[in-house]
Amino acid sequence: MSRLKQHRGFSLIELMVTIAIIGLMLVLGLPYFGKASQTAKERRVKQQFVQDFTWARGAAGAADKKSLDATLASGTPTVTMTINADCTWTTNIAAGVVSAPHSMTATDLGNLANFGSAGCVASNGLAALPQTITFSPQGTVNQVGTLTMTGASGQAFQLQILYSGSIIQTHAASGVES
Questions:
Q1: Residue 164: helix, strand or coil by DSSP?
Q2: Backbone torsions φ then ψ of 99, nearest 5 degrees
């Protein structure tokens, strides 16, 4: 008695159907992943703003400018943050001394996310952008209001700036903390 060996594996048709299904899943999923990636980058810019704002508040409370920059003279630091309509900002630790690690230039912003034409909008007490916020040594600020950062993906982030120097982060559409 002779038995034929059975070949195991995929037929050409099964392989082609599998590849077609994978291709269809990729075509349908890529736009979602692209938008999710853009939204994540925009969220990163918002988080960076909150970190830099918090840093500036703490820096203003420093008792000595030397704790900020060893080349500066002693005294109470004057810390300001200028927020621009294109969602960039500049943090100054003294007159004319920019803290580059705590600022967002147009180049840095372009490398991270696209805020398109919507950009940043001030409301509820904050005057039109650009707006300069001054931090007191106690950490309070001279300007309060709402800053809305809207990215090219349509995601909007609201940041409420309080006199205490605190920021409340809410989602623009739902009012839920983000």
A1: coil
A2: -90, 95
Distance CA 150, CA 83 (A): 14
CA 92, 96, 100, 103 torsion: positive or negative? positive
Q: What is the pLDDT of residue 24?
A: 92
Sequence spans of domains, the chain: 31-171
Q: Dihedral, CA atoms, 132, 137, 138, 139, nearest 10 degrees?
A: 40
> Do the strands 89-94 and 79-83 form a parallel or antiparallel pair, or are they unpaired?
antiparallel
At 111 the pLDDT is 79
Q: What is the dihedral of CA 26, 29, 31, 34, to 10 degrees?
A: -90
Task: Give CA separation, 51 vs 58, 153, 162, 166, in Å.
Answer: 11, 22, 15, 11
Tell which wins on pLDDT, 164 or 32.
164
CATH architecture classification, 31-171: 3-Layer(bab) Sandwich (3.55)
According to the model, what pLDDT value does residue 19 have? 95
